[in-house]
Amino acid sequence: MLKFTLKFLEFMINPNHNNIISKKWNPTLQELKNGVLESNTIALSKAITLIESDAAIHQEQAQQLLNECLKFKKDSVRIGITGIPGVGKSTFIESLGNYIIKLGKKVAVLAVDPSSSINKGSILGDKTRMQHLSKQPQAYIRPSAAGHSLGGVAKKTKESIILCEAAGYDVILIETVGVGQSETLVHSMVDFFLLLKISGSGDGLQGIKRGIIEMADGIAINKADGHNIKSSQLAQKEFERALHLYPVKESGWAPKVVTCSALQNQGIDKIWTLIYQYISTIKQNKFFEKNRIQQDEKWLHQIVQQQLHQEFYNCAEVNQLLPGIINQIHKGEITPFSAAELLMKLYKKRGN
Question: Residue 337, Cβ neighbours under 10 Å: how many?
């Protein structure tokens, strides 16, 4: 069942089967690399599936693939887009993506769906909400489950960005799960961070609070159409006043607030102009390069944390003792702190 689901997702993610369409295609690592570099969407989907796998043999192959693709990655613009559920992220991304394609650029969308804490499943429905964009030959849409990853993104989103850049995509749009003020991780892997808002949603005061608004390089008040135009303009002024309360960003950029209607394709050009101005500004003052270097450092620490976590729970000695320790915690015979210390000592002694 799992194998069928993966095959089905790979098929659904890319309707533009312009190169290899065989469902039974099982490429070698070299063929996978060549396919990615040739912008083959099937190869790119299989490559991302490979890096998302937790199997040890797949992780080793994924590292080889990433090391190769890093040599060929394109100079792209990475844009993170977040907002509360219902703000219209998918509609906005489709509208923005289509606009960017008309400018002669290739667009990749990495959409992250929240995972159920009960059955660990995700709907992965972003592609169905971007039907027009998904049919564009110059677009690629990849939905991924957030899983246990915090910060609004999937565990391997950063690695997926590298593969998309190697495949020649000019703009990478990252749609977060949109769960409020937990979007810190996506901010550490993009060049421009856009916060979507809507007027009259009751989250205006929440948005003005310190938190996610401090990370935003731009704020777009979406659904500014029909009866919402006036209230959207008022919300725009509120956020503009609020932004004056925050200190100047390290980038030297003063975040801007604009209104738009993704459904009516209105104001999308203003947002792209805003992004273009921001990228031009930070490239001129050298913050672009500095930010990318800082992000790579954070990526290193995240990888170390992930690998230590995985290695710890894959340790045979720890797995053998863990059920008994948990049982002792349930009975109140040991505190979680003491249990953790005991397990860590056992982990450090392994193999000695």
Answer: 8
Tens digits of residue pLDDT in 198-244: 987 655 545 445 567 888 999 999 999 999 999 999 999 999 998 88
- pTM for this structure? 0.82
Kindly write down the DSSP assignment for every residue of 66-90, as one continuous string. Answer: HHHHHTT----EEEEEE--TTS-HH
Q: Match domain 292-349 to its CATH number in 1.10.287.130, 3.30.565.10, 3.40.50.450, 3.50.50.60.
A: 1.10.287.130
Q: Are 225 and 260 in contact (CB under 8 A)?
A: no
Annotate 104-139 with b (16+ C-beta within 10 A) or e (fewer): eebbbbbbbbbbeeeeeebebebbebbeebbebebb
222 CB neighbour count, 10 Å cutoff: 26
Class of domain 73-285: alpha beta
- The answer to whether the beta carbons of residues 53 and 62 sit under 8 Å apart is yes
- In the chain, the amino acid numbered 237 is K
The amino acid sitting at 169 is: Y
